């Protein structure tokens, strides 16, 4: 980085004698020079004041370029000795100088204000803090701090001892940095605490240079090190000079060093590059002023006048030093803020193009972002990105600034055009390099767009919200107006809903989606579409189809509520994934479960669409699909009716899976629907077998098994309707289950025993009915009905044939048979007496029996009986059957030996109950005797009353008065006192109740 930051101009020439010090005030030069004769004698030194003719006429306060400076005033023998240092306080119009001592003169008249002769005589260095008016003076091994009081005199504040003679010093806040011999130290001006910093080097003496920020630049041979006010090193803070500087001055943004052969100018910004070299040999003094740097060379004074910032920016931009140019833009005057912003934007754009051409794409995007250029400008660098048609060209103000600056500093449009040509001319690069460059450039674009997205989307959303609110307000105003006849409103034509903010958001999201896909970030594209986005549907759809990005395309359809298109695509992809294709990724990505997951959020918003789209997965994944319907509460009636109309083969699958998955079951209508479906299929199957002549009641198809299971486990179907559909000569098991649901137990058992010839099923039926009615206080004796069928088969069969036509369903308990009178043998009578109240729960009647058919006299009427089954039932269920009634049903020729397995446990159980009752009775009687004995003992208590017995209430002797004794047997009271105390308690209790 080399450019012209300063112009060297000779201001004063031919100064007689040697120049000892230089300063400036109000545009004039103050030169301390030793007279030629005085110099030889080593004594007197004069002060010469030079001014420019132009500054004298205009009264300017800055060093000017025009014309040489002429001598205006000459104060001979102003100092007795040549001054070691001289400094001007611009804010106070004072001249501080150190010759024999420190003197203070008023400017411009040079009147002497104060002289500190006693404490500063022989001093060699001083440091002035103009803001606080503090003066630090180094004399030999002493450091003295003075304060300028009322602008008239110096008052000593502190004095400290230092290790050695001071060579250099500078204020840094409340501290003072000292250069002592070969090291630097920090001393606190209030406490005098010393802190070592580091050594100053081997060649040059210590050099302390204060910075405008309050930090310090400390010299170490040819290196300048930056430290803070406490002497701690600042990271990346060092300037490497080409030679060891004799002195350094700071003139933002540069550091200017006085070297033996030239004046070197370097930047204060890291890496502190060389800016300019001014060839001035043997410079004696280098002094900073408000607007320039003065350099004293022999008997002349040169001014290093800064080149205007704008010109420097142009130089740096042209030479490609964009960062330095941007740094200089910060130094433009505040009143030129618009110009500064425009220049910065132009530099950022040029810098962005430079970085983009160099392959530093991310850094280029940062520059474009800082330039606040429109995103369409950046997207024009990417021909592969397809942009939607919009009405916007860009942000007009920013583009105007960009074009103005492009005209000021080389043409950025030419660079853009040249880059486009480079992008198309890829013959010199290999395909791999071109692909890598394109990928890296697109990655940088993704980051750039993501950084810009939040602000653009926020503006677009705010615009939409504002339109919605204004529309709602307008609608409310229309509703609030009084009724008027409707007339066509020509003024309120439908306006275009697009806007700059939304169009910009559309451009951004559409481009971002394409860039994400082109860089292989499909997951990022999916996440973009899941949130609020403004992607152009047509462009994105074509783009995703061309690259087979079906997952992203599905999310695009979902975000635009194009669910039919998404589901059609999903069905197509699932079908293709099942076929043999070279791309095996289909098997991993697409499966019917994806359709189910897509349908899940639509179940509540659009159930009809869910039903239309679920046929595919219902055939292949019925359980998952039904689970979807159940978990998302899709109306079951709606699902059933839809399947009945469009997919009747899936209706039973849906209903049976719904029945198995739903804990609370399904409503009666659906239960009846399912049973009717099963029955229809079974009847068709029955007709086929009957025509073939292979029908038997013990043949079970899968559907018949489902029908029987459903009939047994559910009760929400219409039994009458089902009975009407059943054939009279077949399906007796189904008929038996339906009779059981109607509490027609006798008919059901007759079917199991006589038609189906399954006594074990009849017993199981009785067990189920008995266990289901265990909680009912009075239930029919179902086992007694079974005994009737076993022991009166002809009568039961005859009754069944007469009533084979189904009747209306009856509820249990409507018909109650009268109690049968048993006329049995002596044994039956004894069994009745033994059982007593223990078997009250058994009732001899059933809901479908008019009266008892078990008279012993008629037991053998009508054909063979099933005695063995009856005896087996009695032996297995003896504890559930009324023994007396069962004995009355048995034929009279039944052997007693055959009844042992029935009577033995029955009699044992009855005897055990009797013994338990007797034990309980004796225990109760014993407890009663114990209570009576305890009462008798308590009534035998003896109380001895003598002449010393006292009443516990009134504390008087009882003597011959009537007395009472409390239950503890020790507390004696007068009977009168006891009665009064009881009355008092009664009154208090009544009062307390009243208060409550």
From TrEMBL:
Keywords: Cytoplasm, Protein transport, Transport. CHCR repeats lie at residues 613-795. GO terms for cellular component: cytoplasm. SUPFAM superfamilies: Putative isomerase YbhE. Pfam families: Clathrin, CNH, Vps39_1, zf-Vps39_C. It is found in: Cytoplasm. Residues 840-861 are annotated as: Disordered. One of its GO terms (biological process) is intracellular protein transport. Its main location: cytoplasm. Signal peptide: none annotated. InterPro entries: CHCR (IPR055358), Clathrin_H-chain/VPS_repeat (IPR000547), CNH_dom (IPR001180), Vam6/VPS39/TRAP1 (IPR032914), VPS39/TGF_beta_rcpt-assoc_1 (IPR019452), VPS39/TGFA1_Znf (IPR019453). Residues 16-293 form the CNH domain. This is CNH domain-containing protein.
């Amino acid at each position: 980085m080399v450019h012209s930051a300063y112009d060297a101009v000779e201001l004063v020439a031919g100064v007689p004698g040697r120049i000892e010090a230089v300063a400036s005030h109000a545009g004039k030069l103050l030169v301390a020079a030793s007279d030629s004769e005085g110099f030889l004698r080593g004594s007197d030194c004069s002060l010469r004041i030079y001014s420019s003719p132009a500054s004298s006429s205009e009264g300017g306060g800055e060093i000017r370029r025009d014309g040489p400076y002429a001598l205006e005033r000459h104060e001979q023998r102003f100092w007795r000795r040549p001054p070691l240092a001289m400094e001007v306080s611009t804010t106070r119009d004072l001249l501080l100088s150190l010759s024999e001592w420190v003197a203070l003169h008023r400017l411009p008249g040079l009147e002497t204000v104060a002289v500190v002769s006693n404490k500063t005589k022989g001093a060699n260095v001083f440091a002035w803090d103009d803001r606080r008016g503090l003066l630090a003076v180094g004399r030999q091994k002493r450091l003295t701090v003075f304060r300028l009081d009322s602008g008239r005199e110096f008052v000593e504040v502190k004095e400290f001892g230092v290790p050695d003679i001071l060579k250099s010093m500078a204020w840094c806040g409340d501290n003072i940095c000292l250069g002592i011999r070969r090291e630097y130290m920090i001393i606190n001006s209030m406490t005098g605490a010393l802190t070592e910093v580091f050594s100053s080097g081997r060649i040059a003496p210590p050099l302390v240079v204060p910075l405008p920020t309050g930090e310090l630049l400390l010299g170490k041979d040819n290196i300048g090190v930056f430290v803070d006010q406490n002497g701690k090193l600042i990271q990346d803070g060092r300037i490497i000079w080409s030679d060891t500087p004799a002195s350094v001055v700071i003139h933002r943004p540069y550091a200017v060093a006085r070297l033996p052969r030239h004046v070197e100018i370097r930047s204060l910004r890291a890496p502190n590059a060389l800016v300019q070299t001014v060839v001035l040999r043997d410079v004696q003094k280098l002094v900073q002023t408000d607007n320039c740097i003065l350099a004293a060379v022999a008997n002349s004074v040169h001014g290093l006048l800064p080149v205007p910032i704008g010109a420097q920016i142009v130089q740096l931009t042209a030479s490609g030093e964009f960062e330095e140019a941007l740094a200089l833009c910060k130094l433009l005057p505040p009143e030129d803020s618009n110009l500064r912003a425009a220049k910065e934007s132009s530099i950022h754009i040029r810098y962005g193009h430079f970085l983009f051409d160099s392959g530093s794409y991310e850094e280029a995007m940062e520059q474009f972002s800082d330039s606040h250029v429109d995103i369409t400008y950046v997207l024009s660098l990417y021909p592969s990105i397809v942009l939607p048609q919009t009405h916007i060209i860009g942000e007009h103000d920013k583009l105007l600034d960009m074009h103005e600056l492009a005209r000021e500093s080389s043409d950025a449009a030419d660079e853009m055009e040249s880059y486009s040509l480079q992008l198309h001319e890829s013959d010199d690069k290999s395909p791999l390099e071109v692909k890598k460059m394109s990928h890296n450039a697109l990655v940088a674009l993704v980051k750039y767009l993501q950084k810009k997205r939040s602000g653009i989307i926020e503006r677009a959303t705010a615009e939409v919200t504002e339109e919605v609110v204004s529309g709602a307000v307008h609608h409310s105003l229309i509703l609030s107006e009084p009724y008027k006849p409707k007339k066509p409103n020509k003024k309120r034509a439908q306006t275009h809903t697009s806007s700059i903010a939304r169009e910009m958001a559309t451009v951004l999201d559409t481009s971002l989606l394409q860039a994400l896909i082109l860089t292989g970030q499909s997951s990022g594209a999916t996440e973009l579409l899941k949130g609020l986005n403004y992607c152009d549907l047509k462009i994105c759809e074509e783009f995703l189809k061309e690259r087979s990005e079906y997952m992203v395309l599905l999310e695009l359809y979902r975000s635009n509520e194009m669910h039919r298109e998404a589901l059609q695509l999903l069905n197509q992809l699932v079908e293709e994934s099942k076929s043999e294709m070279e791309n095996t990724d289909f098997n991993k990505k697409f499966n019917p479960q994806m359709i189910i997951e897509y349908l899940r959020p639509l179940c509540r918003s659009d159930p009809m669409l869910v039903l239309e789209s679920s046929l595919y997965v219902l055939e292949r994944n019925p359980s998952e699909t039904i689970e979807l319907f159940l978990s998302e509460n899709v109306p079951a009636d709606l699902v059933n009716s839809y399947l009945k109309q469009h997919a009747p083969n899936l209706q039973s699958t849906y209903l049976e899976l719904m029945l198995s998955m739903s804990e609370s079951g399904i409503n009666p209508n659906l239960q009846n629907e399912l049973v009717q479906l099963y029955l229809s299929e079974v009847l068709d199957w029955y007709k086929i077998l009957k025509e073939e002549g292979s029908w038997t009641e013990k043949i079970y198809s899968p559907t018949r098994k489902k029908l029987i299971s459903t009939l047994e486990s559910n009760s929400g179907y219409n039994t009458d309707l089902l009975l009407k559909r059943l054939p009279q000569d077949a399906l007796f098991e189904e008929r038996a289950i339906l009779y059981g649901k109607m509490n027609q137990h006798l008919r059901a058992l007759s079917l199991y025993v006589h038609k189906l010839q399954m006594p074990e099923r009849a017993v199981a039926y009785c067990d189920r009915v008995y266990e289901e009615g265990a909680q009912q206080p009075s239930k029919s004796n179902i086992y007694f009905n079974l005994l009737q069928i076993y022991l009166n088969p002809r009568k039961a069969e005859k009754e069944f044939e007469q009533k084979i036509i189904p009747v209306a369903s009856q509820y249990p308990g409507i018909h109650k048979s009268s109690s049968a009178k048993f006329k049995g043998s002596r044994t039956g009578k004894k069994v009745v007496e033994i059982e007593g109240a223990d078997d009250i729960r058994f009732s001899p009647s059933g809901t479908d029996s008019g009266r008892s058919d078990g008279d012993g006299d008629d037991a053998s009427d009508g054909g063979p009986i099933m005695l063995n089954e009856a005896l087996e039932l009695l032996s297995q269920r003896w504890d559930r059957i009324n023994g007396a009634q069962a004995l009355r049903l048995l034929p009279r020729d039944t052997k007693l030996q055959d009844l042992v397995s029935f009577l033995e446990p029955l009699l044992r159980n009855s005897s055990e109950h009797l013994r338990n009752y007797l034990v309980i009775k004796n225990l109760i009687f014993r407890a009663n005797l114990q209570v009576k004995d305890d009462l008798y003992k308590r009534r035998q208590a003896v109380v001895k009353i003598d002449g010393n017995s006292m009443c516990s209430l009134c504390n008087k002797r009882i003597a011959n008065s009537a007395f009472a004794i409390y239950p503890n047997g020790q507390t004696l009271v007068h009977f009168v006192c006891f009665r009064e105390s009881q009355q008092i308690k009664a009154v208090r209790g009544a009062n307390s109740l009243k208060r409550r």
